[in-house]
């Protein structure tokens, strides 16, 4: 499958140069219709009738500029309830457009529709969109690219070409059936059967070689790759054979450039890299494979590939040149990569903290009265669970949290989410079995508008230590520090980077360690925070922040739209 990289032509560069003279840029409004529908797709020798948007897999790429607005009518033509999330968009004062079902809206029912309306405000780079209703996002996702305003430029030399590289997971059966079976049995879900690049598994899988994605490039060109991990459950290593990558942005935030041979990218994260075609003309593999940190856990230990194909005239070798990837459990390589990330400029990091929170994140086990029964197929006859601060989150069924919050409807949620673990223990040590079973509830935590917040996300060794990619809706945050072992509030803050920490919307907890983030709660609404490993989300690894209105209209939530889906 030939994948054309977008070319920045001389005429478009000339046009951009002329537009520098324009004293202001006119924002546009982009209108789209997304029809969620089934489409027969053949992968791994089998045809599956998968859920798509507009019959495309991956879904349509949205291309806008900073300051533009989007109006996207979503029509649900499948039998499942659906909602869509615009991952990384801040949605200022507009939680109604955020998308997670039963948090900011009720789902779009079969045959129904809902129009998401939102504006891009002071954001540029690579984001993405995906279904936020159970495991529909296995195939319902696409890129969301935000270009600089007219007359503005990238903070690096304009690449000759650019392309989106969407990494995914393919299941050789209906992903919703995989989820249903796991939730019924209490066991871990079956792992994926393949990884994909732009929807194709690549050369190393059966019946896939003819459709392997190819990226054409001319010798000497520098291209921009916009890499998205849109997989359900797996962090990934990514590399291009013999071609160093220069990282220039993560999660739609520019970074100080640095070179690397491999990136680690968790579900939900994006990474922009520059690649210079300075090798002998040939075919070179792009490749992605698992980074897996959970002990004794099954995972998809395969490798997806695409081909970087030089367009010059040359005699092609028999096989593309292989990319060198780390071992699946190479945490030092992952840590080395993430520790190099720095914001491009000096950051405005909150220093006077109003809310200092410590969240333990991890798995758990629910004891069964009838162990090893059909509904208790987890370890030692239990059921898997997951929690933050020992609370396994329960999504409402009859209303959304945001609607209840806005309308003052009681009984949908509580506001007693604990700011610290209810019981302190050696989080990464040998944890007593009596602490493995979490409580359950729809618990939220209130934040005053404008308050400065620090959260330390602490992994635990309950069941297993693991890297949990944690995503906060409605916000970007500064990643000010991280480490292994238990966070020490007396000594660790002295090592925080308060000068140029990276700005992200999704960050992984080092396995058996902690990560500290900071942000200002200046976006009112109900905002979900959760692990972007979807099996963990289904088990309850989530919570919700309720950010109160500030003073006046510009610090208050917008009224709900008239077509908000009924509950």
UniProtKB/TrEMBL annotation:
Pfam families: Cu-oxidase (PF00394), Cu-oxidase_2 (PF07731), Cu-oxidase_3 (PF07732). Its cofactor is Cu cation. It catalyses: 4 hydroquinone + O2 = 4 benzosemiquinone + 2 H2O. PROSITE patterns: MULTICOPPER_OXIDASE1 (PS00079), MULTICOPPER_OXIDASE2 (PS00080). Binds 4 Cu cations per monomer. Coiled coil: none annotated. GO terms for molecular function: copper ion binding; hydroquinone:oxygen oxidoreductase activity. Residues 36-149, 164-313, 416-550 form the Plastocyanin-like domain. GO terms for cellular component: apoplast. CDD domains: CuRO_1_LCC_plant (cd13849), CuRO_2_LCC_plant (cd13875), CuRO_3_LCC_plant (cd13897). Its EC number is 1.10.3.2. One of its GO terms (biological process) is lignin catabolic process. Residues 1-27 form the signal peptide. InterPro entries: Cu-oxidase-like_N (IPR011707), Cu-oxidase_2nd (IPR001117), Cu-oxidase_C (IPR011706), Cu-oxidase_fam (IPR045087), Cu_oxidase_CS (IPR033138), Cu_oxidase_Cu_BS (IPR002355), Cupredoxin (IPR008972), CuRO_1_LCC (IPR034288). Keywords: Apoplast, Copper, Glycoprotein, Lignin degradation, Metal-binding, Oxidoreductase, Repeat, Secreted, Signal. It is found in: Secreted, Extracellular space, Apoplast. Lignin degradation and detoxification of lignin-derived products. Belongs to the multicopper oxidase family. This is Laccase. The gene is LOC111493234.
């Amino acid at each position: 499958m030939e994948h054309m990289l977008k070319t920045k032509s001389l005429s478009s560069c000339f046009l951009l140069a002329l537009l520098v003279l324009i004293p202001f840029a006119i924002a546009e409004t982009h209108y789209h219709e997304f029809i969620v529908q089934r489409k027969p797709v053949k992968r791994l020798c089998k045809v599956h009738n998968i859920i798509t948007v507009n019959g495309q897999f991956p879904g349509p790429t949205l291309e806008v500029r900073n300051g533009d607005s989007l109006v996207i009518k979503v029509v649900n033509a499948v039998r499942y309830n659906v909602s869509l999330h615009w991952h990384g968009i801040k949605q200022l004062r507009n939680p109604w457009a955020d998308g997670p079902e039963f948090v900011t809206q009720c789902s779009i029912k079969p045959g129904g529709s809902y129009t998401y309306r939102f504006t891009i405000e002071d954001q540029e780079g690579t984001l993405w969109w995906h279904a936020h209703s159970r495991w529909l996002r296995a195939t319902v996702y696409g890129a969301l690219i935000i270009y600089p305003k007219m007359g503005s430029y990238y903070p690096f030399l304009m690449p000759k070409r650019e392309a989106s590289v969407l990494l995914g997971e393919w299941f050789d059966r209906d992903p919703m059936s995989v989820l249903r079976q796991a939730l019924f049995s209490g066991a871990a879900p079956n792992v994926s059967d393949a990884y994909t690049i732009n929807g194709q598994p690549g050369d190393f899988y059966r019946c896939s070689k003819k459709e392997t994605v190819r990226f054409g490039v001319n010798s000497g060109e520098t291209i921009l790759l916009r890499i998205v991990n849109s997989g359900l459950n797996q962090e990934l290593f990514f590399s291009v054979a013999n071609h160093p990558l220069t990282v220039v942005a993560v999660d739609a935030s520019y970074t100080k450039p640095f070179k690397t041979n491999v990136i680690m990218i968790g579900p939900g994260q994006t990474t922009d890299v520059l690649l210079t075609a300075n090798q002998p003309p040939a075919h070179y593999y792009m490749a992605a494979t698992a980074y897996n940190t959970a002990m004794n856990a099954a995972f998809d230990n395969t490798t997806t590939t695409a081909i970087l194909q030089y367009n010059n005239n040359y005699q092609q070798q028999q096989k593309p040149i292989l990319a060198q990837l780390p071992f699946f459990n190479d945490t030092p390589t992952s840590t080395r990569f993430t520790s190099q990330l720095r914001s491009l400029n000096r950051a405005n990091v909150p220093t006077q903290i109003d809310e200092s929170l410590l969240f333990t994140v991890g798995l758990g086990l629910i004891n069964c009265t009838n162990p090893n029964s059909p509904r208790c197929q987890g370890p030692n006859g239990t059921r898997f669970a997951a929690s933050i601060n020992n609370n396994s989150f329960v999504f409402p069924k009859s209303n959304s949290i945001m609607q209840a919050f806005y309308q003052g409807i009681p009984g949908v949620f509580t506001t007693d989410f604990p700011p610290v673990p209810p019981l302190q223990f050696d989080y990464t040590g040998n944890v007593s079995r009596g602490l493995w079973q979490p409580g359950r509830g729809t618990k939220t935590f209130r934040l005053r508008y404008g308050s400065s917040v620090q959260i330390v996300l602490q992994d635990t060794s309950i069941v297993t230590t693991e890297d949990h990619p944690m995503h906060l809706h409605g916000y970007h945050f500064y990643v000010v520090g991280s480490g292994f072992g238990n966070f020490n509030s007396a000594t660790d803050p002295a090592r925080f980077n308060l000068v140029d920490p990276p700005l992200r919307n999704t960050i992984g907890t080092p396995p058996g360690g902690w990560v500290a983030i900071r942000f200002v709660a200046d976006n009112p609404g109900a905002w979900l925070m959760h692990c972007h490993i979807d099996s963990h989300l289904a088990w309850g690894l989530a919570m919700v922040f309720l950010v109160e209105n500030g003073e006046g209209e510009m610090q208050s939530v917008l009224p709900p739209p008239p077509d908000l889906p009924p509950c």
